[in-house]
Design goal:
The complex is a heterodimer of chains A (357) and B (403).
Chain A lengths: L1 H20 L26 E6 L9 H16 L2 E6 L6 H13 L5 E4 L4 H7 L8 E4 L12 E6 L1 H15 L4 E8 L2 H17 L4 E8 L9 H13 L4 E5 L4 H11 L4 E6 L14 E7 L1 H13 L6 E5 L6 E3 L10 H13 L9
Parallel strand pairs in A: 1-2, 1-3, 3-4, 4-5, 5-11, 6-7, 6-8, 8-9, 9-10
Antiparallel strand pairs in A: 10-12
Helix pairs in contact in A: 2-9, 3-4, 5-6, 5-10, 7-8
Chain B lengths: L1 H27 L7 H26 L7 H19 L1 H25 L4 H23 L10 E3 L6 E2 L2 H12 L5 H12 L2 E2 H19 L1 H11 L1 H6 L4 H27 L2 E3 L6 H11 L4 H20 L1 H25 L2 H20 L5 H4 L2 H13 L20
Antiparallel strand pairs in B: 1-4, 2-3
Helix pairs in contact in B: 1-14, 2-7, 2-8, 2-11, 2-12, 2-13, 3-4, 3-5, 3-11, 3-12, 4-5, 4-11, 6-7, 8-9, 8-11, 12-13, 13-14, 13-17, 14-15
Classes of the chains: A alpha/beta (357), B mainly alpha (403).
Chain lengths: 357, 403
């Protein structure tokens, strides 16, 4: 018994220590993924951009790819050059800071950090490099002191989610829909709030099941089996449309829709997921909530190219084309008019979409 | 004779558990706690954990601690994806086992031949497994249809079968929500509706492992290497060879668990999709006292609670009642045995759970997510006094050494 205790202690310590420090890596380049960004072959005289991805990196078919797409556009149109770095699961805060410092020391400007998880590290690094412009996609300023050289590129995900909520409520035949979130944090709750509000605007009596795969552990964004279990539960209980904001776990949600059979739908997130889904999944992907991370990334680079870098909070909302919904597959062609009516009302301010459930 | 008594005891406990669950279901109206869908989801969630746990059993019975299960599982997910894409799902299962076995071989090489500390090697395997799967995915999946740097989706799944008459009948009975009948019908229904043949394979592998390890000469020799390798050596057992065999099989089993994740739990490969299930498998094995029956029970407990909290958080509330009743019953049993202190602690805990159940309507979702871990902690805390690992587990063995 004593030996097993000792082993357990060593095991726990070893895992903690090694998981912490071992997986840190900064890749200078990576093969072109879905977004087709290849930093190695970019050789313009535009801004030198450091692109720090969140966990998943280029090839995640989601918001990292969207950032890469915006960057690819900047390479084409502004002659920008770039370097890439990518966060690992469970990496310590210091690894993110190191990545940003390496880029800043390498003369990259601007540095675009993709993902809210960079908020703290940008806040720590930015004051040391006053000449460099930073941007954090989905980011926020964690303290009271404003940073003059940081832009927080936020999106009105609640507004985009509202629109797919409308679509879900119009399409459901059981008046029962679902939402699967990856991790229960403020950001993902924003998706939930908009979705529920949109669905209830169409049908106040609609039932919306809500489930988060993990409460705080970011691994909830990379667990397709968990996504499938959660969504299958909803379909079993009578829901026929499930919207996910769960990153890579979302493919499990699509699988659940496939298993649930004809007439069940899933809604994608961040990018047009119909385009990247498998042939089996495609007939079930009603629409996707689009978050134009590419627009935001391109804007940031072009603002630096123009010599007037963006700073502080920038919100890419419906009115600025920062969010939207996709129509690939043609499943919602019959209701786009109605959805657009709601969109107009949001743009005009007639409808205020809540940001928290 | 003792074995038969033990079997009777298990049968009684299982029956008691089903009766209790049924009663709780009727009492609370939480029919989700053992509906067909819930049990199906529980089985699917259990299989990967169970395979990892059985992998751990093989290795540790031969005296090698294998915390590299997670890494071997990750290798298995990649192997399953690669081979399924080109040759179909059954070759994919083989590919998962193959890649897992490579991870096992690496662990065996380090621990048996070079005498590296088992924990150090295992941690290294976990890191190598993750890194290798990322590298291999980027190298081989990027340009495939449905592929990307980090994923390969849309894989063909192994055949699923539904037994027509029985499945429908069971579903009909289960929907009646009758006492006991519906619960048993749910069990039958879950096993006859849309059952993946991969699940059947997992069950077969578990039974085969149990038989080989405990009923065959090979198994006896293998286990002797985990209890007293020097004595085994003196009787002519080639300890190194047995340890190698055990650890390679261990890796293959964990790899198959990873394959299950990529082929049945979801239809695709994503880097890091194991999400700690290898470690959970290790815990399930310890929970099961390094024995196949207990290990299976442990994996089921994890799989059930994890899928239940994901599917249906409202049913988690009904679990409080089950846990409460179970603890009180255990306390009474311990009291009869004369173990007053344990009985009092358990009884108090049980009453606390009952009070919690009675005074609330739902479990906060922050707690619901912890269900699998709390359940394990509770059971481990109550059973840990009786756990016994193989005597030479985790120790370095050099040929010719005396104890």
């Amino acid at each position: 018994m004593r030996r097993s205790t000792k082993i357990a202690a060593v095991l726990a310590a070893a895992i903690l220590a090694l998981a912490g420090c071992a997986k840190e890596e900064t890749t200078d380049s990576s093969d072109s993924g879905g977004a087709g960004l290849d930093c190695d072959s970019a050789s313009g005289d535009g801004p030198k951009v450091g692109l720090a991805y969140d966990v998943g990196g280029q090839g995640d078919n989601s918001f990292n790819d969207a950032a890469a797409a915006g960057m690819a556009k900047a390479v084409d149109e502004l002659g920008a050059t770039c370097t890439e770095g990518e966060a690992q699961d469970d990496e310590p805060e210091s690894a993110r800071e190191d990545r940003l410092r390496q880029m800043a020391d390498g003369g990259y400007n601007p540095i675009v950090a993709v993902g809210f998880a960079y908020s703290e590290s940008v806040n720590a690094v930015a004051p040391d490099y006053p000449e460099t412009s930073f941007a954090v996609v989905d980011g926020f300023d964690p303290d009271e002191e404003p940073n003059d050289n940081v832009a927080y590129l936020g999106f009105a995900e609640n507004e985009g989610s509202y629109l797919v909520g409308v679509a879900a409520a119009l399409k459901t035949e059981t008046d029962h829909i679902g939402f699967v979130g990856g991790v229960n944090n403020d950001l993902i709750q924003k998706f939930e709030a908009g979705y529920v509000a949109g669905a209830e605007a169409v049908n106040p009596d609609i039932t919306v099941d809500v489930k988060y795969i993990e409460e705080s552990d970011l691994s909830g964004f990379g667990d397709p089996a968990g996504g499938k279990a959660a969504a299958t539960g909803m379909y079993d209980n009578g829901a026929d449309v499930v919207y996910h904001a769960a990153g890579a776990s979302g493919s499990g949600v699509f699988d659940a829709a496939v298993d649930a059979g004809e007439g069940t739908w899933a809604i994608g997130v961040d990018s047009d997921q119909y385009l990247t889904a498998s042939a089996e999944q495609k007939p079930h992907i009603l629409t996707s909530m689009l978050k134009r991370v590419d627009t935001a990334t391109f804007d940031m680079v072009s603002s630096v190219a123009d010599g007037e870098p963006l700073t502080s909070y920038q919100t890419y909302d419906l009115a600025h084309d920062g969010v939207g919904y996709s129509t690939s597959g043609g499943f919602i062609d019959d209701i786009t008019d109605e959805i657009d009516e709601y969109a107009e009302k949001i743009k005009s301010g007639e409808i205020k979409v809540p940001t928290a459930p | 004779m003792r074995a038969r008594q033990l079997n009777h005891l298990w049968l009684l406990i299982s029956l008691g558990a089903i009766l209790m669950v049924s009663a709780v279901r009727i009492l609370t109206g939480a029919h989700g706690i053992d509906s067909i869908g819930t049990i199906r989801a529980a089985i699917i969630a259990t299989c990967p954990i169970l395979m990892a746990a059985i992998g751990g059993l093989w290795s540790e019975r031969a005296g090698v601690v294998n915390i590299g299960l997670e890494g071997q599982m990750i290798l298995g997910t990649w192997g399953a994806a690669y081979f399924t894409y080109y040759y179909g799902p059954w070759v994919g299962v083989f590919g998962a086992a193959l890649l897992g076995a490579v991870g096992g071989l690496l662990h065996a090489l380090a621990t048996v031949t070079f005498g590296v500390d088992h924990i150090v090697s295992g941690v290294a395997i976990n890191i190598i497994g993750l890194g290798a799967s990322r590298f291999l995915a980027e190298a081989y999946f990027t340009d495939l249809e449905g592929g990307g740097i980090k994923q390969l989706t849309g894989l063909e799944t192994p055949t699923r079968v539904t037994i027509p008459g029985i499945s429908d009948g069971a579903e009909y009975l289960a929907d009646k929500h009758w006492f006991l009948v519906s619960d048993l019908a749910s069990l039958v229904g879950a096993m006859t509706t849309d059952l993946s043949l991969f699940t059947v394979l997992v069950a077969a592998l578990v039974i085969a492992s149990a038989w080989i390890l405990w009923r065959s000469t090979f198994g006896l020799r293998l286990r002797s290497c985990g209890e007293n390798p020097a004595a085994a050596e003196s009787l002519g057992v080639n300890v190194y060879r047995y340890k190698y065999a055990a650890v390679v099989v261990s890796g293959a089993m964990a790899g198959i668990g990873g394959g299950f994740l990529a082929l049945v739990s979801s239809s695709g490969f994503t880097t890091g999709q194991t999400n700690g299930r290898g470690f959970i498998g290790l815990a399930a094995m310890i929970f099961g006292n390094w024995r196949p029956g207990g290990t299976t029970a442990g994996a089921l407990l994890f799989g059930y609670t994890d899928s239940l909290q994901l599917r249906d958080s409202t049913s988690v509330h009904a679990l409080l009642l089950i846990v409460g009743i179970g603890l009180v019953a255990l306390a009474l049993w311990r009291l009869r045995q004369g173990k007053t202190t344990t009985a009092i602690v358990m009884g108090a805990l049980g009453v606390a759970f009952l009070v919690w159940f009675l005074t609330t309507d739902s479990v906060p979702k922050e707690f619901a997510g912890m269900t699998p871990y709390i359940a394990t902690l509770l059971v481990l805390a109550l059973a840990a006094q009786r756990l016994r690992m193989p005597a030479a587990d985790g120790l370095r063995y050099r040929r010719g050494q005396s104890i």
